[in-house]
Amino acid sequence: MQLSVSEYAEARGISRQRALALINSGQIKARRIGHSWAIDQLEVSHRPAISRPLSPKVARLIIAALSSEEVELDAQERYFLSRYRDRLRSDPSPLPLLHSWLRSRQIRVVDVAANAADIAEVSSDHRVVASGISDARAGLSSAREFEGYVAAAALEGFMHDNLLLESDAPNIRLHVVEQLPAAPIPLGFVIADLIDWNRPREDGRARELLEGVQWRP
């Protein structure tokens, strides 16, 4: 279902001007139809940003920290990473903050539809790495939907070969990145992807995973 800018603004409880600003900044997906914008109803559930995204490099460092990965850091990187870590640990509501910071971990998100019977085959394609709701550590895996990462250079072929089409009723979410992460994907990606859904079940699991992170000194 498609919403007008005014309908979206009313559903989100924001002004029409704010909704237009979100479209222009790319924070919500919309397509131009004549002189008007059409917004997918799914965008209503997307979590709004509360701050600017970090640079892709810093976002990757935070993901590495959330994944308890050992990464070589210079003195400046170590300083800034410790500040972000301390802010996260002290914030009573860290999920919106992480959502805002880590938006730069990907180029874009593509929501597509596939035959439910083909989900298993799609998820086993070597060009995609499972994450978010489809990662085993999330404990939310479903045979009816899939979430994963695909390299930008492989996206067109991946969608064509798996008969995937952008849809108003998607059951596959693809995070498009420059370089495909290795499988199993680092835990930081899983946490970030769960947060992006902005749904109680995913938020609850993201909090549990975040609380279990072993931060390196």
Task: Please provide a written account of the structure.
The structure is a single chain. This protein has 217 residues and is an alpha+beta fold. It has nine helices and eight strands. The strands form two sheets. Strands 5-6-8-4-7 form a five-stranded mixed sheet. The chain has a three-stranded antiparallel sheet with strand order 1-3-2. Strand 2 and strand 3 form a beta hairpin. Helix 5 crosses helix 8 and helix 8 runs antiparallel to helix 9. The protein is globular, with a radius of gyration of 18 Å. The termini are far apart.
| Percent in strands | 15-25%
Q: Please list the strands of the largest sheet in the order they lie side by side.
A: 5-6-8-4-7
N- and C-termini, Cα separation = 48 Å
- Taking Cα atoms only, what radius of gyration do you get, to the nearest Å? 18 Å
Overall pLDDT metric: 89
**Secondary structure tally, helices:** 9
Outline, from the CA principal axes?
globular
Enumerate the spans where pLDDT stays under 50 for 5 or more consecutive residues. none
Tell how many strands the DSSP assignment holds. Answer: 8
Helix and strand run: EHHEEHHHEHEEHEEHH
Largest sheet: 5 strands, mixed
